[in-house]
Amino acid sequence: MIYGYLGYCTLHSRLTFEDDTCSHYTPIRFDAEYYWCLTCRMRLTREEALEHASRGHRVYKSAYVDPDIREEIYDAF
């Protein structure tokens, strides 16, 4: 199963999914280096995140994404 969005609710100590929310939600503060736009499914810089959020996109703080992860993925052939 592939999840396009996976979060963690610290108030209830449980995972949240795209259609599930946390009652402990607070609006995003743009104070990190990288972000993730769930609408576009792409990694953004702070400036790009501000622009995407202004267009109503779902923008989240992003965890580090290793650019060399593709080297760890093995072909099925």
Structural overview:
- Helix content is 12%, strand content 25%.
- A 3-stranded antiparallel sheet has the order 4-3-5, with helices on one face. Strands 1-2 form a two-stranded antiparallel sheet.
- It is built from 1 helix and 5 strands, in the order E-E-E-E-H-E.
- The chain has a domain of 36 residues.
- It has 77 residues and is of the alpha+beta class.
Please write out the topology.
Elements: E1 6-9, E2 14-17, E3 34-37, E4 42-45, H1 46-54, E5 59-61
Question: Summary?
Answer:
This protein is α+β, with helices and mostly antiparallel strands and 77 residues long. It has one helix at 46-54, and strands spanning 6-9, 14-17, 34-37, 42-45, 59-61.
Radius of gyration: 14 Å
Shape: globular
First-last Cα distance: 21 Å
Mean pLDDT: 78
* Class by SSE composition: alpha+beta
Number of strands: 5
Q: Characterize the biggest β-sheet.
A: 3 strands, antiparallel
Instruction: Please mark out the parts with pLDDT under 50 across 5 or more consecutive residues, or reply none.
Output: none
Strand order of the largest sheet: 4-3-5
- The ordered string of helix (H) and strand (E) elements is EEEEHE
Q: Helix fraction?
A: 10-25%
The total of helices stands at 1
Strand content: 15-25%
Key traits:
two-stranded antiparallel sheet, 25% strand, single chain, globular, 1 helix, 77 residues, alpha+beta
